[in-house]
Specification:
- The chain is an alpha/beta fold and 167 residues long.
- The chain has one domain: Ribonuclease H-like superfamily/Ribonuclease H (Nucleotidyltransferase, domain 5, 2-Layer Sandwich), CATH 3.30.420.
């Protein structure tokens, strides 16, 4: 019988974006370490915005020493420019995580909804209510991208715990 492996001690959850990125750092016992958002100025050149995202993420990784980056996979956007910008931001995020030695786990919106609510068509408000409940918060963290980052981090706890039961 294989020994159960436990989820990593510290998880960095990311709700990817370009103008606004939600991030959350949690421990495997669902304790929130910290959370926030990275905002970039829309008037700034794209390369400067990507550098800003990278610098802010490096600071978060250096400060909290996560073992895993849990990040939402891209899904269909109606606006091609938006998806390209978000993809570039995700690339910077994943690159920095790997450079820092973090494992990278990607989850689809469906996987996140299932992990939090058990229902793949849950809406944003249902996810937010579950984040408040699961983390015993008094209100939904703002901006909404932060609640989404907490949801991504929690999703990693669910899926990594389930994997350890099967391994």
């Amino acid at each position: 019988m294989r020994k159960k492996s436990s989820p990593p001690e510290i998880i960095l959850g990311i709700d990817p974006g370009f103008g606004l990125i939600g991030w959350a750092v949690i421990k495997k016992d669902r304790e929130i370490v910290d959370y926030g958002s990275i905002k970039t100025e829309g008037k700034e050149r794209i390369e400067n915005r990507l550098v800003e995202i990278g610098e802010d993420l490096e600071e978060i990784i250096t400060t909290y020493h996560p073992q895993v980056l849990a990040i939402e996979k891209l899904f269909y956007f109606k606006n091609a420019k938006t998806v390209i910008d978000v993809a570039q931001s995700r690339g910077v995020t994943i690159y920095l995580a790997r450079q820092a030695g973090l494992q990278v786990a990607e989850y689809t919106p469906l996987e996140i909804k299932l992990a939090l609510t058990g229902y793949g068509r849950a809406d944003k408000r249902q996810i937010q209510r579950m984040v408040v409940s699961l983390f015993k918060l008094s209100a939904v963290p703002k901006p909404d991208d932060v609640a989404d980052a907490l949801a991504v981090a929690y999703t990693h706890l669910v899926y990594s715990a389930n994997r350890s039961l099967v391994s």
